[in-house]
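Duplicate of #3305? Posting structure anyway:
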């Protein structure tokens, strides 16, 4: 449930930040896409549970996380808009985040680095889920508004769910598949919104 709150908060926070910065209001299809994606993600994430416990402090932490995600996307967009290279911007942001979170190793430990499997997982996370993903993320900020970029990254839970089935041979409930399909439909609407935004700006 925390992931749904975080994911649902991020496009809303991005919209509010954009309004405060005076960015043009997204098209109506953007709002429709946001609603469709949030509904789909809710079904995808919660479809396999008969009941869900809601912890207020957890909800607040999830809202904070979603807002933070929208904020650093906006920060990166500002830097890219000043003609800085998108990959360089993302590398700088993650280097800074890594330095700030390094003290957490005192609690989490470095056991992952003591086994071959752990190192393999770490390399996968570093190269695929971080480097490749955020090089693309930085590039997209040079071509799309932050509100749309945040929206498109909400496809991540769907990719994770499909990979869990294909790679880890886990099962996904019927509700999960329905939710994933709804999210994909919302992504199509988000893409339509992005094309409309570019056409409006060009005009």
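Output from current build:
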């Amino acid at each position: 449930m925390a992931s749904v709150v975080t994911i649902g908060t991020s496009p809303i926070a991005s919209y509010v930040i954009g309004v405060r910065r005076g960015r043009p209001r997204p098209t109506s299809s953007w709002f429709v896409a946001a609603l469709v994606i949030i509904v789909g993600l809710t079904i995808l994430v919660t479809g396999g549970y008969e009941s869900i416990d809601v912890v207020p402090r957890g909800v607040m932490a999830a809202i904070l996380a979603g807002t933070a995600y929208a904020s650093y996307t906006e920060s990166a967009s500002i830097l890219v808009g000043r003609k800085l290279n998108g990959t360089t911007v993302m590398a700088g942001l993650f280097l800074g985040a890594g330095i700030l979170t390094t003290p957490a190793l005192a609690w989490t430990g470095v056991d992952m680095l003591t086994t071959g499997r752990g190192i393999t997982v770490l390399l996968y996370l570093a190269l695929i889920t971080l480097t490749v993903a955020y090089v693309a993320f930085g590039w997209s900020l040079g071509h799309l508004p932050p509100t749309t970029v945040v929206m498109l990254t909400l496809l991540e839970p769907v990719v994770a769910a499909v990979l869990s089935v294909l790679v880890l041979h886990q099962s996904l409930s019927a509700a999960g598949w329905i939710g994933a399909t709804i999210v994909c439909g919302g992504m199509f609407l988000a893409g339509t919104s992005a094309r409309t935004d570019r056409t409006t700006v060009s005009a």
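Confirmed duplicate; merging threads. The CA atoms of residues 31 and 190 lie 9 Å apart. Confidence is low (pLDDT under 50) at residues 198-203.
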